[in-house]
Write a sequence for this structure.
């Protein structure tokens, strides 16, 4: 098997053959997905980086990998400093890095099916200022040197029935048609895989951890649609479900079909549709209306059926997690357990529900110093034992037909230090502040982010990730457009007004490099609140996740009376709602760990 150094050398030789002086390798696919199929894992194949967000640039004499604060430690662990320099986003950008190095006349390649139009415009301008050129490639040079690159998945689509969606596909497409009418548009391009899954009420198995299928679509102004998907992926059940108002074409016919849209007014999302789509439409003579994908907001605002399904999934998932935490409380102090054995046991408890379709992301099972790596993924090489008098952080979730879960708990194995308890309690106080926030309609996530950080800030501490992300309905565990993140964060969405029905995570944390990590994550639902005398419409959050918070890590002297009452009330809910779903020995344990503070 070739080494990562060999792969980099092979790519440089391929670039030289193509007369390119550089090439950009993002971690995405033709749908701007966060999680991608094995065939699109070009960054991981080239560099060894296993995170879920990043990009690389390869030039003849140097190469750089760009990641945000979640991956600062991980990238150094996984990617060789002999071949790659580490660049931090948003402090530096690919465009800035390239323009500082590209010489007059340099030709820097990019794959127009893997970048947004906005990125292409900015990079082209930055390079032009140096007399260099951004060049679109017809075929990706990484693919040319990747001998055993997997093929895209041929897994069949499955119908997601109305009992889980709460609305049929025809009704959803009718709403998109109304949206198009309001813009005097003929059709909308749907290229984001979760938008396609939601619109057509189908799910797939083409991307690990996210139940989506590789496809493109055009939804027409009359509510009919053209769906571009490999035909062998459609069984008779799915064809019948789609009906005669959805015309099916091969996936590879999509680019050619765009060239037939001369004179049409076509809506496309500059954030979610790749540059190649805009280029094809403009070349065809279509008028492109740049607008947010019309599915993004309705998908984020869960209807009553989706909310009920999510709550059912939370109860089921909470019972599995409680069984795991009980098991951990017995086995971890004995020694012999590792990050891998623990995450495997947690998965087994979820599988015993009989309803787990997949994990919702790769479990973050971090013992001791590995817990300080925000998006850590254990390997055979990094696998640590769970040791006495240390912290163990486990961030995990499940995909169920009725909902997607995501939960983090930090557990003391043995006796925690005073510092650990101080940091944990500050994180908990921030978590409670966000969970109990009351705010006027129209408030954005970035306006609430400080609530979760305030007690860490008071001690000169912080964390380098957002506080909350949206979550889908048996879809992506990271769903937009809403986020709770600082102003100016590298992850977009903090400026989206929060609306009832949106589900987000509430996950402040603290990470001490080389020592331990702490995160407390529950999912929360935006809901209307009745406040006596209120002069504006008021919103708040309902906490959805049900699992005990480790009382051994709480310094009760740091909590206010209201905070103690919140912990006690939350634990009473966990006891009453999850207790009946677990075996007797686990229920007895649960009662003891959820006693009032």
């Amino acid at each position: 098997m070739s080494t990562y150094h060999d792969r980099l050398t092979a790519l440089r030789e391929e670039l030289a053959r193509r007369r390119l002086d550089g090439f950009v390798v993002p971690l995405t696919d033709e749908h701007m997905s966060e999680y991608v199929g094995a065939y699109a894992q070009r960054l991981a194949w080239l560099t060894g980086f296993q995170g879920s967000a990043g990009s690389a640039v390869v030039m003849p004499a140097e190469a750089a990998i760009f990641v945000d604060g979640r991956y600062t430690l991980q990238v150094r662990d996984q990617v060789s400093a002999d071949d790659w320099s580490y660049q931090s986003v948003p402090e530096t950008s690919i465009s800035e890095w390239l323009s500082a190095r590209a010489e007059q006349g340099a030709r820097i390649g990019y794959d127009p099916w893997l970048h947004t139009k906005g990125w292409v415009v900015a990079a082209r301008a930055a390079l032009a200022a140096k007399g260099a050129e951004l060049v679109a490639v017809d075929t990706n040079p990484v693919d040319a040197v990747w001998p055993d690159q997997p093929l895209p998945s041929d897994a069949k689509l499955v119908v997601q029935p109305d009992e889980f969606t709460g609305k049929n596909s025809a009704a959803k497409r009718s709403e998109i048609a109304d949206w198009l009418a309001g813009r005097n548009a003929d059709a909308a391009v749907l290229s984001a895989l979760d938008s396609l899954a939601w619109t057509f009420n189908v799910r797939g198995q083409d991307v690990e951890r996210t139940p989506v299928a590789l496809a493109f679509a055009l939804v027409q102004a009359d509510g009919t649609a053209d769906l571009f998907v490999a035909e062998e992926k459609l069984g008779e059940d799915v064809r019948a479900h789609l009906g005669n108002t959805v015309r099916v074409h091969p996936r590879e016919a999509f680019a050619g079909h765009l060239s037939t849209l001369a004179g049409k007014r076509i809506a496309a999302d500059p954030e979610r549709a790749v540059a190649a789509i805009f280029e094809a439409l403009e070349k065809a003579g279509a008028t492109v209306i740049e607008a947010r994908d019309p599915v993004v907001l309705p998908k984020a605002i869960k209807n009553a059926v989706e909310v009920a399904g999510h709550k059912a999934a939370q109860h089921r998932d909470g019972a599995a997690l409680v069984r795991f935490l009980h098991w951990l409380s017995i086995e971890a102090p004995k020694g012999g357990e590792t990050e891998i054995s623990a995450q495997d046991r947690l998965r087994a408890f979820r599988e015993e529900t009989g309803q787990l379709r997949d994990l919702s992301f790769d479990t973050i099972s971090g013992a001791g110093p590995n817990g300080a790596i925000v998006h850590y993924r254990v390997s055979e090489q990094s696998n640590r034992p769970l040791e006495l008098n240390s912290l163990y952080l486990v961030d995990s979730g499940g995909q169920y037909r009725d909902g997607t879960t995501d939960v983090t708990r930090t557990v003391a194995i043995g006796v925690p230090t005073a510092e650990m308890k101080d940091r944990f309690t500050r994180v908990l106080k921030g978590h409670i502040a966000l969970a109990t926030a009351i705010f006027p309609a129209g408030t954005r996530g970035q306006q609430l982010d400080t609530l979760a950080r305030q007690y860490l800030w008071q001690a000169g501490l912080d964390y380098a990730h957002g506080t909350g992300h949206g979550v889908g309905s048996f879809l992506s565990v990271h769903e937009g457009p809403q986020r709770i993140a600082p102003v100016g964060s590298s992850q977009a969405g903090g400026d989206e007004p929060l609306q009832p029905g949106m589900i987000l995570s509430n996950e402040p944390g603290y990470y001490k490099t080389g020592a331990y990590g702490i995160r407390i994550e529950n999912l929360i639902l935006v809901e209307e609140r009745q406040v006596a005398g209120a002069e504006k419409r008021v919103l708040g959050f309902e906490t959805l996740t049900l699992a005990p918070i480790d009382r051994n890590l709480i310094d009760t002297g740091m909590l206010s009376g209201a905070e103690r009452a919140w912990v006690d009330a939350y634990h009473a809910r966990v006891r009453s709602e999850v207790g009946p779903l677990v075996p007797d020995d686990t229920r007895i344990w649960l009662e003891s760990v959820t006693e009032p503070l």
Notes: The chain has a mean pLDDT of 97.
